[in-house]
Structures are given as structure tokens and as C-alpha cells.
Write a structure and sequence with these properties.
By secondary structure, the protein is mainly alpha-helical. It has 10 helices and 4 strands, in the order H-E-H-E-E-H-H-H-H-H-H-H-H-E. The chain has one domain (about 5-250, about 255-290): Arp2/3 complex 21 kDa subunit ARPC3 (Orthogonal Bundle), CATH 1.10.1760.20. The strands form 2 sheets. A two-stranded parallel sheet has the order 1-4. The chain has a two-stranded antiparallel sheet with strand order 2-3.
Amino acid sequence: MHIPSSMLHGAVCPVTVAVGAAGVGAALYVARKANESPTAAKFAAVTAMIFALQMLNFPVQNGTSGHLLGGMLAVAFLGIPWAVLSMSLVLSVQAIFFGDGGVNALGANIINMGLIGAGAAGLLFNFLQGRKFSRTAALAVASMASVLTAALACSVEISLAGTVSFSRAVAAMLSVHALIGTGEAVLTVVLVAVISAVARKWAANEMPVAIASLIVAVVAAMLSPFASNFPDGLEWVSAKMAFISFKGVQFAALFPDYQVPAIGGSLSTVLAGLIGVGIVLAVAALMAKAIAHFPMKRID
């Protein structure tokens, strides 16, 4: 789902950066005004978990793969505004340090997976619960919707950039991401249930969800060499539709393609994943502590 530099061109780049920045700013404002906020440790651990889980591509069909977006996973544990901040941080670290998603496409990726995948889907989640849906059912529906709406937004953005016509892209994007969205729904529901159950077992601990999330993050990073090598949904559609390629902003990532330079094989992927988890943990903790407003009540 990460849009690379080569797929966006022209005015759509600065426009999406502006919209993405405005959305993150709005999320920051709401987060600071909220009566309840996650602890810095919880925010950092959940954000690191989402980063690591996004490394685990799972096969779908026709030689393509998908990975957890994690927007609704973040909403379930952090609330909507903090989930938007979490997703935006993950996407920024991926683009800058790992070359995953183009720098000039960062605004679009934040819109798709942060503002839509966590923000809009989170509002849908709350709406469904208000209509007497069970939490599990609402979480599943919102998780799938987060993927499909993000795929729709991606189709609009790349068509505006002249990469491919909207009519050609949208059907293929939605069809393959319907399958990925199903995986998103299942994984989100299972992860929320498991982490919540583990946290209840550790009720005496000060930060049960944070610890459980960190464990998941480390395990996911260790398992990253076993992720599917098939192209993800967007890459698969790009190859199928022969997208026009542009010369986007090139950025020399420190760990390109989640590899540590000069180290080969599975060890390189694991180390890159663990380094990424460490970077996200540090930046997320600093971000949470730097927010001036301290909530009246913390969610552990």
C-alpha cells in the first residue's frame, strides 16, 4: 500500500503533503485536548508493534501479498487521535530510514493509512459500536473498511498524478485489497483479543499492554525473514497495469529494503527490523513526552 516516489508526480505531491500535515496537526490538537491519553511507554510500544508487523507480508493470490496496515489496531489500543499520530510516525520512519514509500509520497501515504486508515476507520468503528454492533464485529468491519478506503484513495492519487487512469486502477486495486482487507480484519481482531487477554493476566503490572505490544514487536521483527516475497497489492497492480513511472525524490535510506548494508541474508533483515523497532520506540516515546498537555487520566 506504500506509494513509492515513482508513482506520484506534479501538484499532487505538495497538495497531499499539505493535507497530510494538516491532518496530523489536527490529530495532535485533539490528542492534547483529550481527557484520556496513553502513557508514553504504551504509545511507543504499540507504534513499534505496528512497524514490525508491517514487515510481515502474507501471500494472498495470483502471486501477490499483503501486510497489516495496523490503523485499527492502533485505534483499539490508543484511541483515534493517537492512532493517527502513531501511523504517521511509522510511515515517516519507513520512508526516511528504510526507503519504504517515497519521500514525495509521504503525504499521500499518511492520508491513506493514517488519516483514513486510522482516523476515518476509527470514526466508523465508534459509529458501529453506537449502533449496537459488538466491539469485535465493529473492529472487523472497520479494519476491512480501512484497507478498502485507503486503496480507493490511493487510486485517486495516482490517477491525479497521471500514473494510470482511475477507471483502470480502481477495480484492480479494490479487488486485490478486498482479500488483503479480509486478512487485516482477522489479524486485527486476533491481535487485539490476544494482547488484551495477556494484559488482563498481568493486571498487577503497571503497563500490561505496553509490555505485550513490545513482545509482539520483537517477535515480528525476528520472524521478518519468513515474510512473503510476493509483490504487495499496489506493486502487483502496478505491474499488471504497466503504470507510468516518474523520477521521484530519491533519498539514500540507511537501511534500504529493510537490509543492513554489508550484512546479507536473514540476519540482515532481522537486524534492520530490530533497529527499526528501536528507532520507533525512541522517537514515539519522545513525541509522547513532548506533547505539552498531560491527560487527566492515562490508559494502561
